[in-house]
Design brief:
The chain has 497 residues and is mostly helical. The protein has helices at 8-29, 35-40, 47-58, 61-73, 79-87, 89-95, 97-103, 110-115, 118-147, 155-203, 207-217, 236-252, 255-258, 267-301, 315-323, 328-359, 369-397, 402-426, 432-452, 458-475, 485-490. It folds into two domains: 8-400, Sodium/glucose cotransporter; 407-497, no CATH class. It comes from Photobacterium proteolyticum.
């Protein structure tokens, strides 16, 4: 594999970006006077900024690089998932956001204690924290792994630049700093995708028309065979179902996204956040797939530019480093760092919010806002250090095949968490013990399916969610509900269940 010198100008651009992000954290550090500032930004975030933050949070650097690679080697079928995510947003706004806003939650999992009991709150919160520490490690590791073959930067340096600097600005700026850096990073990602596509268009004989024509001739959009049903392959029907439940998990049960619902000063601003996110999701991912199509056309016309036995998973950074002008290449690599950091910083602040709200505040006497702020910052650092150490271990041990295995575990914990919120919001007869029975059954079911069948991992979240709801509903009459009727009605959707 050919190694390309990153170049002085590219280094300057990358370092300027990293310095700018650090300055954002420094600027917002002066506003962090209490836990409410650190985790909720005092309600000062405008809806459009919260929406860009949601978009940037859910789009990691791995997505930024893997979607063009998927369109290059395969087809566009995964684009379906982006629009499924848009379709569930009205449902989220109608049924979930009113609860989160009305209860003035710091951690989304506070709802589960109010609706069920402390066991359900701790299960969901601890599952979220462990998952996101692992996610920090995986995103950092795979970002470094993707860049190593193409730029002359030591992988541990990449881990440091992504992880340690992210810890610092998240520690200083809290959720307000995280969201405003997300805005910068989200814009960088969008501009980078458009910039790459336009630049390739100028380098392909026949331009944009030829790019889309070549993909059509190769049947690289939505091949007819992908519309068939399959239990083991990621065909379009499977993707639609899988992304539906994955999006539900992300927008109803994941603290890093749910936290954006409470950083604005009104429910109307929260609505603007979802609308802004929907607009971005509708437009920007198309450019990522278009970049893959453009790369396919470019390297089909110029096959000699690809090294022998090239790993096409790194096609995007390879093109950026080898073909784009100095300075512009540095800006694109900075965008890859941005995608990684936006996901990691959100995870850090959300882990801190969960630990402080769900665990620390429940120990001993009532804590002051200043004590919560101090603990929140300490947890931010510890979570980041654990994530960086784990990613360093993965690099040193040269682990492989982690991302698919990690994605499959989303269904193990994410599915039951989604089911818990769904059970609580929609099933009035459900109680703490029936919810526990549902969670145990769901985890056991997903583990059994994962170990004994070749079922596609997109179904894991479906199984985890539905088993919690079904078992929680059926077993509810077996247990006494300890909550008053009025309390249950205030925490559920009105209607007969």
């Amino acid at each position: 594999m050919e190694m390309h010198a990153f170049g002085t100008l590219n280094y300057i651009v990358l370092l300027v970006y990293l310095a700018a992000i650090m300055l954002v954290g420094v600027y917002f550090a002066r506003r962090q006077k209490s836990a409410d500032d650190y985790f909720k930004a005092g309600g000062r975030i405008p809806g459009w900024a919260a929406g860009i933050s949601v978009f940037a949070t859910t789009l990691s650097s791995i997505t930024f690089m893997s979607i063009p690679a998927k369109a290059y080697t395969g087809d566009w079928t995964f684009l379906i998932g982006q629009y499924i995510a848009i379709l569930i947003l009205p449902f989220v706004f109608m049924y979930y956001i009113p609860f989160f806003r009305k209860l003035n939650l710091t951690s989304a999992y506070e709802y589960l204690e109010k609706r069920f009991d402390i066991k359900m709150r701790l299960f969901a919160s601890i599952s979220f924290m462990l998952f996101h520490i692992g996610r920090i490690a995986i995103i950092t590791y795979l970002t470094a792994l993707a860049l190593i073959p193409f730029i002359d930067i030591n992988p541990l340096t990449i881990v440091f630049l992504i992880g340690v600097l992210c810890i610092i600005y998240t520690f200083m700026g809290g959720i307000e700093g995280v969201i405003w850096t997300d805005v910068i990073q989200g814009i960088m990602l969008s501009v980078a995708a458009v910039m790459i596509f336009v630049m390739i268009c100028f380098n392909v004989d026949g331009g944009m028309t030829e790019i889309f024509s070549m993909s059509a001739q190769a049947d690289k959009y939505f091949p007819s065979e992908k519309f068939a049903w399959s239990w083991s392959e990621s065909t379009i029907p499977v993707l639609m179902i899988g992304f539906l439940f994955a999006s539900l998990q992300q927008f109803t049960a994941s603290q890093d996204v749910v936290q954006r619902y409470i950083v604005t000063d009104s429910i109307d601003e929260t609505k603007k956040a979802l609308v802004t996110n929907a607009k971005l999701v509708a437009c920007i991912p198309v450019f990522f797939f278009a970049v893959g199509a453009a790369l396919y056309a470019y390297y089909t016309q110029n096959p000699s530019l690809l090294p022998e036995d090239f790993n096409t998973g790194g096609i995007l950074p390879f093109f950026v480093i080898s073909q784009m002008p100095a300075g512009i290449a540095g800006l694109i690599i900075a965008a890859i760092f941005a995608a990684s950091q936006s996901s990691i910083s959100s995870s850090l602040n959300s882990i801190s919010a969960c630990f402080t709200s769900d665990i620390y505040n429940r120990l001993g006497t009532t804590k002051t806002p200043e004590e919560n702020l101090k603990v929140g910052r300490i947890v931010t650092v510890l979570a980041g250090v654990f994530g960086v150490l784990a990613s360093t271990y993965l690099i040193m041990s040269n682990e492989s095949e982690l991302w698919d295995a990690f994605n499959s575990l989303i269904g193990l914990m994410g599915g039951p968490m989604t089911g818990l919120f769904m059970l609580g919001v929609f099933v009035r007869r459900a109680n703490a013990n029936s919810a526990l029975a549902g969670v145990v059954a769901a985890v056991a079911s997903v583990l059994w399916v994962r170990s004994t069948t070749d079922l596609n991992f997109f179904f894991y979240g479906v199984i985890g969610t539905l088993v919690v709801v079904i078992v929680g509903y059926l077993t509810a009459p077996l247990f006494k509900n300890t909550h008053a009727k009025e309390e249950i009605e205030a925490l559920t959707i009105q209607g007969q269940n």
